[in-house]
Specification:
329 residues; alpha/beta; 7-stranded parallel beta sheet; 10 helices
Amino acid sequence: MSTPNYKLEAQKTAAKHKKIQQQVTRADKRKPAKESKKAMQAGARKYPEPPMDKKHLTKPGIEARLAMQPMCDAPFYKGSGKLQDKVAIITGGDSGIGRAVAILFAREGADVCIVYLNEHVDAKDTQKMVEKEGRKCILIPGDVTNRAFCFDAVKQTLREFGKLDVLVNNAAFQLHVSHFEDLTEEHFDTTLKTNLYGYFHMAQAAVPHMKPGSAIVNTGSVTGLMGNKDLLDYSLTKGGIHTFTRSLGTHLIDKGIRVNAVAPGPVWTPLNPSDKNKKDIAAFGADTPMKRPAQPEEIAPAFVFLASPQCSSYITGEVLPIIGGYTGG
């Protein structure tokens, strides 16, 4: 039996590596294919592309004041009873992602409680959209940083509907800071109180009233996955929400309550026009691989999926990114 010539085999392998390298070098010299500058359109209808509406909104950001209205009604989405006769609380449900989620929840058969700060016009518009789907909708204005308010919102929902099946934690505060030293304690505290304490208070208020098969869906963010140099505090809270989701999801398994999160990339909602300057608003979403921001109706089906026991009964503690594609390092 002959002894393998490892040295010769290694030489052959090295030669093969060199040959492949030469092939790639020749290919690199060819004129590269032009990257398309067009935004990707893969939905049931066409969505707006940058430049976006340059109007800057004052906080808290009223959707009714946007000239370029977010697309939330998902006319091609057909309900099939995935949430039939469920009751859901949606914080920040007056506009943006929360509004789109409320509409699709109703289309899937759920009654909805909208918890919001003070955007009364937006909230009433959302209520009308939910009722148009043939379901009931109540509005509860208040501040989710107030623990007593969160518990009272759950009590009001129970009085109105008699039960609670789904909690969507979605209310958020976001405001950029270009220089770290300008991030004040008041600003930092406001972001943490809204984005972390609000989720915590609402979950603690809701869980005792939720039965096996119920679900909590938290709104995370791509900033919680990748960070953002101008949203230090916001990114911190979104990363915390992702970890809170994973931890609470495991903690509540014995109660039969699933906990998951959706982590969107840029989405055209009042949150961003009330944060960015006009130049940045116009280019919003252009740096994603799809070269445009998402519209709320493109994000909302993920909340339906994670809320519905028919769709995601074996999923808990997960974070679902919807960010318009990934870029290489």
